[in-house]
């Protein structure tokens, strides 16, 4: 769901928050804030900073107010144990991490899963799957995802796949949404999904029906703003994504993790701070 274009400034949100009347979206009796302990930041959005100065980068995120982080592919040239100490020192939990599909195949899987366990993660997954964009291709990927999930469960982890736009495209032969093949052919006990609210809108698909019908399959959500159908990204609050209306589809917001991300890195520190302030001031109306 998209809202009308407009800019919500960090200063404006801070002022509303201080007055107790922040509402970055439709107001309604019983509207709730996004649980502050579940607001996270995707480290892909600060990947250049992280490579140069992981200690300073995580300190910046902790000072901004974040409670959780989600690494992508590496840990700032630190070992998992070193990275966890840096995160702990800054009050940050590593909630999940993005990897390549090959990191869960063969002997590489045990290395990936051991690292996630050292970091104290609850989730571990892939940023994409690398199969064929067809009904049969998605069936084969679903089978492999179940196997990935089995291996992760043996380590006390829940496996997940991050979603982009192409998963929500129709199969050229059947017309069926490709993601639905995954949804109905993966074991909910083994495979979860990270719904990216920007990318599903880029596919011209509304996220609300999926969140209502399959809420428990999406424990992690990627929050990214901009104009999805035009491929434009912004900091949260500066784009067209109607987060308040989308998140109102959740019956249990506290059961989810809200991970902020911006693929581009024009001003990563500003992105982290402005986006946190916006989300902290957001109010979610009760699901009806």
UniProtKB/TrEMBL annotation:
Domain Xylose isomerase-like TIM barrel: 63-280
SUPFAM superfamilies: Xylose isomerase-like
Keyword Signal: yes
InterPro entries (alphabetical): IolE/XylAMocC-like (IPR050312), Xyl_isomerase-like_sf (IPR036237), Xyl_isomerase-like_TIM-brl (IPR013022)
Domain of life, per lineage: Bacteria
Protein name, per record: Xylose isomerase-like TIM barrel domain-containing protein
Signal sequence extent: 1-24
PANTHER family registered for this protein in UniProt: HYDROXYPYRUVATE ISOMERASE (PTHR12110), INOSOSE DEHYDRATASE (PTHR12110:SF41)
Native organism taxonomy: Bacteria, Bacillati, Actinomycetota, Actinomycetes, Pseudonocardiales
Record carries keyword Thylakoid: no
Keywords: Signal
Pfam families given in the database record: AP_endonuc_2
């Amino acid at each position: 769901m998209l809202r009308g274009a407009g800019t919500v400034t960090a200063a404006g949100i801070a002022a509303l928050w201080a007055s107790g009347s922040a509402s970055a979206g439709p107001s309604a009796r019983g509207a709730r804030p996004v649980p502050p302990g579940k607001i996270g930041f995707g480290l892909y959005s600060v990947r250049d900073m992280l490579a140069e100065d992981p200690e300073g980068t995580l300190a910046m995120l902790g000072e901004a107010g974040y409670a959780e982080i989600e690494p992508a592919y590496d840990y700032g040239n630190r070992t998992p144990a070193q990275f966890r100490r840096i995160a702990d020192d800054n009050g940050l939990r590593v909630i999940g991490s993005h990897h390549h599909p090959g990191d869960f195949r063969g002997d590489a899987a045990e290395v990936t899963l051991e690292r996630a366990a050292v970091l104290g993660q609850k989730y571990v997954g892939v940023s994409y799957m690398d199969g064929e964009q067809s009904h049969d291709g998605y069936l084969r990927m679903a089978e492999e995802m179940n196997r990935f999930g089995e291996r992760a469960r043996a380590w006390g982890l829940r496996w997940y796949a991050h979603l982009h736009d192409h998963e929500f495209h129709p199969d050229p032969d059947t017309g069926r949404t490709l993601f639905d093949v995954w949804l109905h052919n993966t074991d909910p006990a083994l495979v979860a999904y990270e719904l990216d609210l920007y990318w599903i809108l880029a596919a011209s698909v509304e996220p609300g029906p999926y969140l209502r019908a399959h809420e428990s399959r999406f424990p992690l959500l990627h929050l990214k703003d901009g104009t999805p159908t035009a491929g434009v990204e912004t900091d949260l609050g500066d784009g067209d994504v109607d987060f308040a209306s989308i998140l109102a589809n959740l019956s249990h917001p506290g059961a989810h993790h809200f991970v902020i991300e911006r693929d581009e890195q024009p001003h990563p520190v500003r992105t982290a701070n402005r986006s946190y302030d916006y989300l902290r001031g957001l109010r979610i109306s009760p699901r009806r």
